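Chapter summary example.
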Amino acid sequence: MTPRLFGDAALASAWILALTASLAVLFVGEVLGQTPCLLCWYQRAFMFPLTIVLGLGLWWQDRRVGRYGVVLALAGGAVALWHLGLYAGLIPERIQPCTATGPSCTDADQLILGVPIPLLSFLAFALIAGLSAASLTDTKR
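The structure predicted for these 141 residues follows.
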């Protein structure tokens, strides 16, 4: 596979993953009625633009957009990792950003098919970052 085709496939894969993740969280929130916690909102603030930015890069056939994908995915991944630390109990409860009146970062509602939402989010951001970086293999167009 040529570097150009590999880069195009990587960028398309990153976009499909970002789109799937964005639609999944909208389904969980809007259809299932699960209110996102504060950290989930922050992660959405990085995932939703990824869908738009990577999609426009595909539309305009500009793989250099992968560099923005890397930055947004790493930032979102950092928030997801923090959220995962709260969920796993590695971060002390006294510094949790969620309030007692809102949804919790650590309760059973944070599971989808038995897998914690923060872990799914972190994996999505990690894959998007890797695929976005891989799309930069041949940007001399």
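To summarize the output: The two ends are 17 Å apart (CA to CA).
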